[in-house]
Specification:
alpha+beta, 15 strands, single chain
């Protein structure tokens, strides 16, 4: 999802000899054999060729002269040239361990400014340059010749393994080096010069330099759309300040509409641990634990995407049964689907218990859209504009610009909640695909909810059972027809098959339906005050535990190097494991909320978690943006560890690399690297920082946009309902079970709870009823 398109080319290496940069090609040619005079002569041939480029003649000539005479400047110890040379990539290390991107010294390069050489004035410009073997170079290599071939699959999913021989087009693989060049060179200039030079040297290589991969220290000015965003945020800030001041200073009866943006009032609501007696309190704990799991999984995904010195060890992590909670972390999304379906089914049935007329489907949708979209829209707006100005680094602008371009071109698909069916290469807020799936399921939910309300029990069982079976069959068919492996780490994550299997509503509705089933069961259990025997309680917990462990551990065999799994086996696994997990989660919630949770329910229902749980939706919207900035701001390759990355400079005394030389008909190297116990001590703080900073950002988003939108929706769209409720209470203060007015009174009191529950049934936040959030209990 956050993958930078850089790949491995283990045959190209660079080194340094004196003043010269030397290249060694697969064919064995080396500039080390050339004298400095010959090198300059060959470079001048390139210059002569470039001087015929037309309109760019002067610029190219100046750029070339500065580069050609580079060794002469260093011999005269002119510091700026030494900085350019020093910050350029030298000998690439850890190539066989999977490292393919070498960042040089970014800050040293761009800090070179306004240097006058007599030929021209320039500043340092840091460029990432990708080297590839020419497209006609296709080789077949055995694992003996190419150690850690599995790490290649991570960077190049089209690597094919057949009869222990790995065949691939080397043009698909690349080695990215950093060069610090004068700012007088454009990326196009530098690319043309380098390719001409490689051709003159008869090297079977081509290079590409994109303009977006070249950076100087020049500041960026805000564009028109950026200023518009600043204006919008400033307007919201003014509302927040004025409403908060009115809340704190104003006297007498205050108008609720003018308190919508009050940080003081909204903060009290957010931090409240009160809830009604009928709240499914255990949901709070499951929700918060699940969002932490999502953050953890995304951190590991980023570790696999950013430059690392030991990508190959990630393959060992995948194989390790003790790390299946990472490799199978996509199950966290299915937990949210279960919560979504369960709360929707339970709250709907609870609120419609005494309703004598049908529910308003248009308003059912309107409330949902209004309450979900404002915070989401602000995240989209910032991602499309100001996000690209946050942070710096050799890689970050590329990723930030990609996200900005995706939001600028596809924002409307997000606002309409259909972005999961569009090009994922140009996605906006990448993790938001789940919001779209959940919204689509919500739009279809009346087809399931209405029969639950009106139909006899036997027909409900038939309907829900059929849909549950469909939730298994659909991903099975997609996986089999599209030939999608159960091992996502070797699959093309942006391919059509994986998109159909992973982010489409028609393949992910199974856990949601199972959630609706358990919502129905919870409602019936509470209505009938269900009593379970010790045997039933024990059986329930055994089923829950076995189901979740089987789903989590079932992938283990697919990650083994000797695994020879067929497409049919992968299809069976892909069809079953998410639904089995959903059953385990649903059973856990059922046991907890019906009074048979024991210590598990005590932990999950801990009141301290309640405020954190309320932030889950905004945490989901913001956490990935922070993680991308933190990861792609790196100046050096990371060291992949268990929980999260540990920067190379923090680990240098702990890295252990073992190089063993074995002879089996021919020499070959086999490198192994493993984290020491000291490495593990650095992992937890980084993960915790992800959670803490995400919570801070989520609190800002919630208090500034999400909660005010809920307040406005309640006051504006709910004004007539509230007046009617108050009039009914004055006329009929006591309950009259046989009176329509009494039913209306009760329904009006509870309708806000229904709307709040429906609003928050989203991918990561399934908040409890409105009165739970506001601290006002439902009157029963």
């Amino acid at each position: 999802m956050f993958r930078l398109r850089t790949k491995i080319q283990p045959h190209i290496t660079t080194t340094l000899a004196g003043d010269q940069q030397l290249f060694t090609s697969p064919g064995g040619y080396s500039l080390a054999k050339e004298s400095p005079v010959n090198i300059r002569q060959k470079l001048r041939v390139t210059q002569s060729r470039s001087e015929r480029c037309g309109a760019e003649e002067k610029k190219v000539h100046r750029c070339l002269e500065l580069n050609i005479n580079f060794p002469l400047y260093t011999q005269h110890t002119e510091c700026p040239w030494l900085n350019l040379f020093d910050s350029t990539t030298k000998f690439p290390e850890s190539v066989l361990m999977g490292q393919s991107v070498f960042l040089g010294n970014f800050d040293e390069c761009i800090e070179v400014e306004h240097v006058d050489t007599g030929v021209g004035v320039f500043s340092g410009q840091h460029c990432l340059t990708e080297f590839r073997q020419k497209p006609d170079s296709v080789q077949a290599l055995s694992p003996q010749n190419l150690p850690h071939v599995e790490s290649l699959r991570i960077r190049a999913p089209n690597v094919r393994d057949n009869d222990r021989t790995v065949s691939f087009d080397l043009s698909d693989l690349g080695l990215t080096l950093s060069y610090c060049i004068p700012s007088t060179c454009s990326a196009k200039d530098f690319e043309g010069i380098f390719n001409s030079y490689l051709q003159d040297m008869n090297l079977p290589l081509v290079t590409s330099v994109a303009e977006e991969y070249c950076q100087t220290n020049e500041g960026k000015s805000l564009a028109t759309e950026d200023w518009i965003t600043v204006g919008i945020l400033a307007a919201f800030l003014l509302l927040i300040v004025s409403n908060t001041a009115y809340d704190l200073i104003g006297k007498g009866q205050k108008k609720e509409l003018l308190l919508a943006f009050s940080v003081y009032s909204n903060g009290k609501k957010l931090l409240s641990t009160k809830s009604s007696g009928d709240t499914l309190q255990a949901v709070h704990g499951i929700r918060f634990i699940t969002i932490c799991w999502v953050i953890w999984g995304h951190r590991y995904t980023l570790d696999m995407a950013v430059p690392s010195i030991n990508l190959s060890i990630a393959v060992d992590f995948i194989k390790d049964p003790g790390r299946l909670y990472i490799t199978n972390s996509t199950l966290s999304v299915d937990t949210f689907f279960v919560l979504s379906g369960l709360l929707l089914g339970y709250i709907f049935l609870k609120q419609m218990k005494h309703k004598t007329s049908g529910f308003n489907i248009p308003m059912f949708y309107v409330h949902r859209y209004i309450r979900l979209t404002p915070a989401y829209a602000i995240v989209i707006l910032i991602s499309a504009t100001l996000y690209r100005y946050v942070g710096s680094g050799p890689l970050l602008p590329v990723i930030a610009n990609q996200m900005a371009e995706g939001c600028q071109s596809n924002w409307w698909t997000n606002i309409l909640y259909i972005n999961n069916y569009f090009d994922m290469n140009r996605t906006c807020v990448p993790q938001s695909w789940y919001l779209s799936v959940d919204m689509q399921l919500f739009l279809l939910s009346p087809i399931v909810l209405y029969p639950l309300w009106k139909w006899p029990r036997k027909w409900n069982i038939l309907l829900l059972g059929t849909l549950a079976i469909g939730g298994v069959v659909s991903p099975f068919i997609i996986s089999y027809v599209e030939e999608v492996s159960a091992n996502l780490f070797t699959a093309n994550l942006l391919g059509g098959g994986i998109q159909k299997l992973y982010i489409a509503a028609y393949s992910r509705f199974g856990p949601w339906i199972i959630g609706v089933i358990f919502g129905y069961l919870v409602y019936e259990a509470k209505r009938k005050e269900l009593k379970l025997s010790l045997i039933q309680i024990t059986a329930g917990w055994i089923l829950s535990t076995v189901a979740m462990l089987a789903s989590l551990d079932g992938i283990y065999s697919f990650y083994q190097p000797d695994a020879d799994k067929t497409i049919l086996e992968s299809a069976f696994y892909n069809g079953l494991f998410r639904n089995v997990w959903a059953f385990g989660v649903g059973m856990t919630i059922f046991m907890c909320v019906t009074g048979y949770g024991g210590a598990a329910n005590t932990l999950l229902s801990w009141r301290v978690i309640t405020p954190l749980s309320r932030l889950t939706y905004c945490v989901y919207l913001t956490h990935a943006s922070y993680q991308v900035v933190e990861s792609y701001s790196a100046r050096t390759p990371i060291y992949i560890a268990d929980l999260t990355e540990v920067r190379q400079e923090r680990n240098k005394f702990h890295l252990q690399a073992k190089c063993k030389l074995k002879m089996r008909h021919k020499e070959r190297f086999k490198i192994r690297e493993a984290p020491s116990e000291s490495d593990q001590s650095h992992q937890l703080p980084t993960f915790l920082s992800d959670v803490i900073i995400s919570l801070i950002l989520a609190a800002i988003l919630s208090l500034g946009f999400e909660t005010p939108a809920i307040n406005l929706e309640k006051n504006l769209l709910g004004r007539g309902r509230k007046t009617k409720q108050n009039n009914t209470e004055e006329a009929s203060p006591q309950k009259q079970e046989g009176s329509d007015k009494a039913y209306t009174n009760k329904l009006m009191e509870e309708s806000v709870a229904l709307e709040e529950g429906i609003h928050n049934i989203t991918e990561v936040v399934v908040k409890d009823t409105w009165e739970d959030r506001m601290g006002h209990p439902i009157k029963e």
